[in-house]
Amino acid sequence: GQSGRPQNGNHYKIALLQADGEYDLERGHGRQGNAGDAGDLFHGRGVNSIGPSTSAKGPYPNTDSYQGGNIKKTHITISDISDSSDTMSFRVQLGGQAPQPTPTAPVSAPHGGRCD
Description:
The protein is mainly beta. It is built from 1 helix and 4 strands, in the order αββββ.
């Protein structure tokens, strides 16, 4: 990880989440990083799942969201990631409470329900 995370503001808008959590791709080749290795990919014969954090200290990587220095649990778990191949599969579980629909007032049609 990086020092002062997440409040340090050093975050990509979109990033490749690496299974090993080593941030090699961000550090770059030759600066305590590399151009990618086998530990970066999620697959059935390696790290085959990812879920929300269990504490303020992680684990990392996880499926929590980040915005403006605030971490929020998404309650999403991605598991059963298949072996690496041309076609892959995985399972997504959406945890937590399901969103509740917003109540709306009944709508009445003009002209007694006729469409003129």
